Amino acid sequence: MSEASLQKFREQSHTSFTRAGLRVSENILLRFAASLLAKRFLILTGLSGSGKTKLAHAFAAWITESSGEQYCLAAVGADWTTNENVLGYQDALQTGVYRKPSNGALDVILRARNDLAHPYFLILDEMNLSHVERYFADILSAIESGQEIALHSAGSEIDGVPARIVLPENLFIIGTVNVDETTYMFSPKVLDRANVIEFRATADDIAAFLDAPSKIDMGALAGKGATFGTAFVEEASADAELGSATAAELKARLTEIFGELAKIGAEFGFRTAYEITRFTHFHAKLSGEGWQFKDALDAQVLQKLLPKLHGSERRLGPVLKALETFCMTHECDDSLKKIRRMQDRLKDGFTSFAEA
Question: Which residues is 174 bridged to in the sheet?
Answer without folding.
Answer: 42, 123
